[in-house]
Amino acid sequence: MKRIILNIRCELDKVPNIDVLLPQEFARGEELKQEGIMEHLFVTEGRMGAVLVFKDVDEAKAKEIAATFPLFKYFDTQYITVEKYY
């Protein structure tokens, strides 16, 4: 089963209005979780990035979805397609 991993780096301390945007960011993540698209969310040590795992989408759709996050313009994102075996 294919998954798309989004490896995101974002320097949150450089984001203006982070206190407003961060709750919106997590709300969007929760929406994607409820829709069954986002399978996992990991926050990196030091909160300088995140790893998201999307299922049932291709890379083009993953890029489209990623653009809906309020902090997207501050992201440096790498998209990795993987096959889940177990």
TrEMBL record:
One of its GO terms (molecular function) is isomerase activity. The keyword Metal-binding does not apply. InterPro entries: Dimeric_a/b-barrel (IPR011008), MLI_dom (IPR026029). It comes from the Bacteria. Keywords: Isomerase. Gene3D superfamilies: Dimeric alpha+beta barrel. Residues 21-84 form the Muconolactone isomerase domain. This is Muconolactone delta-isomerase. It comes from Flexibacter flexilis DSM 6793.
